[in-house]
């Protein structure tokens, strides 16, 4: 890999905010070997931050320490660098030390969102779930617009089998990021797990509605891909469950009325799922057979 | 008599080259210098707010986020209603105010900025900025007064009424001279206020060293412009309650008729 591709890759990862730590680390090492740090100009500081996080992730703490040293020399007292140092402390020392460090940061600036979030994640990691939820709720009460925080709260609730609370957190996520179908899908699956099947089937259908119009073909001829397939699975399963136990339709916690046309919806979902797997060969063919069996005994 | 005195004046072109242009140039340069000074020294990092203040500032965003999508809401009515009513309750009770809910018998006057230490800090910062901006201007004014006092620099190409005399002929005490002649000190003032348009073109819109803004805004008014100034959040919250109620009436979940939409899209509409 030459220098320009390495730089290109690093810039891509930065904009996409993805956690490809090994790749970032390898590209970063090339930049250093070619001694090209000065070529990055103002981007070099962002690059150092990126490399420090990646290096901590892959366990090269020596590299991370160097990066953080550079950064803290350039920006003494910067909240962002202090937070990065916190991550380094988390990696090298015990959770208690990290917690005390974040406490100190928060004491200096009680509204330091980054440090607060790190602190909550340390709390969760060390098993103090109750404290983490309490802090996270307080955090979200202050910084309502933090989608990441709401998702984390939903995740914590789900991990404790509190699906109703998780669903409530996800509603806030949907309000804040209504354009993201993955969050809608998560809400649908959470609703299904929480036992609110009418809400689940409607939300699955919303996901289908949001994602199926990517190709130019009319919707009924297009082959569903990716997230849409998963949403069709959800529709199929919810419709089946609702028909099997009609009692579920009236016990929706969100008072959502179940759709009237369940058999047609289920038939449509089956057809779309078959279409999704029909054109495939080899290993996927067995998947199609499995699917046929699953759909058949419905 | 007026016209005869106007004709009788003849300005040495040297005045144009050695006084008029230098003054203008010095003012532009001084401004640019002050600008860089301003960026690097005066714009210190924004003041850190305590948590409660941040919460108060951002509370309105919650209801705005909720209201923004209410006509095509991503969430079902029951969740919408509970969030909306919780917000309304919190707003009426003042739960988001940084000093806690207001007391019943408290006077309903807006807070006095002079008693709030945080607002006082903001005011001091504004005054400091203005002082630093003012110092070079005062030096230039002294320079003009000292070297070019009483100079007539330029003749305006249009007639003006006598009322402009004190504005255009500052530093020259003659009752007879035509108002169109501009003195050195007045030229300075005209530049001081008139060049802002030029600066804005050079530097792009919203720059901090706009000296006329500093002049027009008193140090007490400055705090109002800064975020986190003494706004009456209690009043804002109360007003937002009405908006919330209105949006609740508009609420429509996108999932309400989604199955019909899907069936129609896929050509499976049930015959009714």
Write up this protein.
The complex is a heterodimer of chains A (298) and B (272). With 298 residues, chain A is mainly alpha-helical. Helices cover 74% and strands 0% of the residues of chain A. Chain A has three domains: 1-91; 93-178, Tetratricopeptide repeat domain (Serine Threonine Protein Phosphatase 5, Tetratricopeptide repeat); 186-298, no CATH class. In chain A, helix 11 (181-194) runs parallel beside helix 13. Chain B has helices at 2-8, 13-42, 51-68, 77-93, 117-148, 165-168, 184-194, 196-203, 211-216, 219-225, 233-250, 258-265, and strands spanning 152-155, 181-183. The longest helix of chain B has 32 residues, at 117-148. Chain B is built from twelve helices and two strands; from the N terminus they run αααααβαβαααααα. Chain B starts with a helix and ends in a 7-residue tail after the last helix. Chain B has a two-stranded antiparallel ribbon with strand order 1-2. With 272 residues, chain B is mainly α. Mean pLDDT of chain B is 76; it is low at 1-6 and 208-229. Helix content of chain B is 61%, strand content 3%.
Distance between the termini of chain B: 98 Å
- CA-atom Rg of chain A in angstroms: 24 Å
Unreliable segments of 5+ consecutive residues of chain B: 1-6, 208-229
Q: Which percent bin holds the helix content of chain A?
A: over 70%
Largest sheet of chain B: 2 strands, antiparallel
Q: What is the averaged pLDDT score of chain B?
A: 76
The description of the largest β-sheet of chain A is: none
What's the number of domains of chain A?
Answer: 3
**Unreliable segments of 5+ consecutive residues of chain A:** none
User: Helix- and strand-based class of chain B?
Assistant: mainly alpha
Number of domains of chain B: 1
Strand content of chain B: under 5%
Transmembrane segments (chain B): 20-42, 132-154, 185-203
Pfam family, one (chain B): EMC3_TMCO1
Membrane topology (chain B): Multi-pass membrane protein
Protein name (chain B): ER membrane protein complex subunit 3
């Amino acid at each position: 890999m030459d220098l320009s591709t390495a730089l290109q890759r690093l810039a891509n990862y930065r904009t996409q905010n993805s956690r490809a730590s090994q790749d970032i680390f390898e590209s970063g090492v090339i930049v250093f070997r070619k001694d090209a740090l000065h070529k990055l100009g103002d981007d070099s500081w962002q690059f150092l931050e990126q490399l420090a996080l990646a290096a901590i992730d892959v366990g090269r703490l020596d590299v991370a320490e160097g990066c953080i040293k550079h950064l803290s020399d350039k920006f003494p007292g910067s909240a962002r660098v202090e937070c990065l140092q916190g991550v380094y402390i988390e990696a090298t020392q015990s959770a208690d030390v990290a917690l005390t460090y974040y406490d100190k940061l928060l004491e200096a600036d009680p509204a330091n969102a980054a440090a607060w979030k790190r602190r909550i994640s340390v709390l969760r990691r060390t098993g103090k779930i109750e404290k983490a939820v309490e802090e996270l709720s307080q955090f979200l009460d202050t910084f309502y617009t933090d989608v990441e925080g709401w998702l984390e709260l939903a995740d914590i609730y789900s991990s404790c089998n509190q699906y109703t609370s998780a669903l409530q957190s996800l509603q806030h996520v949907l309000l804040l990021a209504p354009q993201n179908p993955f969050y809608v899908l998560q809400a649908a699956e959470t609703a299904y797990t929480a036992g609110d099947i009418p809400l689940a089937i409607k939300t699955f259908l919303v996901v289908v509605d949001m994602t199926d119009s990517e190709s130019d073909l009319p919707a009924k001829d297009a082959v569903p891909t990716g997230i849409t397939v998963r949403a069709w699975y959800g529709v199929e399963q919810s419709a089946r469950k609702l028909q099997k136990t009609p009692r579920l339709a009236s016990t929706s916690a969100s008072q959502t009325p179940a759709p009237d046309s369940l058999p047609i919806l289920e038939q449509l979902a089956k057809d779309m799922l078959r279409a999704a797997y029909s054109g495939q060969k080899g290993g996927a063919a067995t998947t199609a057979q499995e699917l046929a069996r699953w759909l058949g005994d419905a | 008599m007026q016209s005869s005195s106007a004709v009788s004046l003849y300005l040495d072109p040297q005045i144009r080259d050695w006084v008029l242009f230098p003054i203008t140039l010095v003012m532009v340069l001084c401004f640019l210098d002050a600008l860089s000074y301003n960026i690097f020294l005066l714009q210190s990092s924004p003041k850190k707010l305590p948590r409660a203040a941040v919460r108060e500032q951002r509370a309105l965003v919650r209801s705005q986020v909720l209201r923004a999508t209410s006509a095509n809401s991503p969430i079902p009515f029951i969740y919408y209603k509970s969030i909306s009513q919780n917000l309304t309750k919190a707003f009426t009770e003042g739960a988001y105010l940084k000093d806690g809910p207001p007391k019943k018998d408290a006077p309903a006057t807006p807070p006095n900025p002079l008693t709030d230490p945080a607002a006082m800090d903001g005011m001091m910062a504004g005054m400091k900025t203005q002082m630093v901006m003012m110092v070079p201007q005062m030096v230039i004014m002294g320079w003009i007064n000292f070297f070019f006092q009483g100079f007539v620099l330029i003749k305006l190409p249009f007639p003006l009424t006598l009322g402009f005399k004190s504005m255009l002929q500052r530093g020259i005490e003659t009752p007879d001279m035509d108002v169109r002649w501009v003195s050195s000190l007045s030229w300075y003032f005209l530049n001081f206020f008139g060049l802002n348009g030029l600066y804005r073109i050079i530097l792009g819109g919203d720059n901090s060293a706009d000296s006329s803004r500093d002049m027009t805004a008193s140090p007490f008014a400055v705090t109002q412009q800064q975020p986190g100034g003494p706004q009456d959040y209690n009043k804002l919250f109360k007003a937002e309650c009405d908006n919330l109620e209105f949006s609740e009436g508009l609420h429509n979940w996108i999932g309400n008729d989604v199955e019909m939409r899907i069936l129609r899209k896929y050509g499976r509409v049930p015959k009714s």
